[in-house]
Amino acid sequence: MKQLILKDIDDLIIGSLGIVAFISFFVGGVVTIQTALNIDNPLIPKYLVGFATRQSIILEFAPTFMSIIMAGKVGSFITSSIGTMRVTEQIDALEVMGINSLNYLVFPKFISMMLYPFVISIAMFLGILGGMAACVYGGFSTLEDYIVGIQNDFETFHVVYAFIKTFVFAFVLATIPSFHGFYMKGGALEVGKASTTSFVWTSVVIIILNYFLTQMLLS
Amino acid sequence: MIEVNNLHKSFGDVEVLKGISTSFDKGKTNLIIGQSGSGKTVFLKCLLGLFEYEEGTISYDGKIFSQLTEDEKRNIRAEIGMVFQGSALFDSMTIAENVMFPLQMFTKQSKSEMEDRVDFVLKRVNLPEAHNKMPSEASGGMQKRVAIARAIVNNPKYLFCDEPNSGLDPKTAIVIDNLIQEITDEYQITTVINSHDMNSVMEIGEKIVFLRHGLKAWEGSNKTIFKTDNEVVTDFVYSSNLFKKVRKMYIEENE
Q1: Span of the secretion signal (chain B) (predicted)?
Q2: ipTM exceeding 0.85?
Q3: Helix, strand, coil proportions of chain A in percent (round to 5)?
């Protein structure tokens, strides 16, 4: 079981770091540019660009939208890998051996996804870093203003809120795709269909939960 | 020995198995044959405990499976080896890891003991140097042999094979048939094979159960199948001209 968990950590967490880093850095930059370009009132301080970038990245982009992206990346991987095992009778082989196949396949994924907040914290850091690069090298404000902005009016609970959401989304990302893969019927074509269905449902559940969690935790 | 008594299995309103009673003998290769849709795969999956059935009993060496506790069922399952139609090797593991898997699950052997056992069974199926290959790097015949190695690695008392020759060329099919029969004799396993392959029926069918429309239509061996007057069996088994000629020659030789 330990080996399975380590393998799933490698596949689901470590394997996602590259795409997460790439998307976070550039989306952070885009958020900064968009914010800076929409501030044309000279009375609004320049450090607001950093402030707005930090709030967007920590509150929504990193926990929620990165989770939607992960529903496509990690979720599809989980559904297709378990679904292929179903189609090729590998799950039947486990059951014939008397192994609880659901536990054997899903539990390691569930445990490895508990490291998902680590991925999201990297997304937060790189998103803000990307914003800083875009802000400074794009000439929208100085480095000092940006740093003042990201420190300004900082509420620790916003990070706590983001990580509560992240844990909930990690549970969703591990379970819904596993369900669609484990209980699929048919052949190779149905594996593809199950992956798509799993992505749609995981995204829908994440968006709905995001709404209710925000309502409960922030209002 | 496996005994089946009055086995009924339905899917919704469709009754697939309509009261099958038979037995599979220890140390023999027992074949289940029949047309597509006759209930062979459902029957095999009931024997393996993958399908629940509505009525009837299946007993393994006198122990009625449905009456056993979960621990007892687990013990029986640890004595079962299964060769799936598509081999069902675990994609993410090497061939050696696939073969070692039942040992890791059901025994407390040390790693070196398990490695020795894996070496032994891989040599037994003529794959002495395939340890580090991935299943995707192996041919269909090799995958079948690995599946057999995985099935026998834990010294099973019962070996089930679902169409072990499907997708193989005739020569490799004969190698697989012979391997299964040798292993059955050598370890005195109760082997049950679900097959469409008439070569297998003639070569290794020490006991043959013919299913039709969810019922046992005939029971015999590769010796008696040549002489049977049962039209349903002769229609199915001797549907090709080659086998009609073989049967005619056999009957002429033995008259």
Answers
A1: none
A2: no
A3: 85, 0, 15
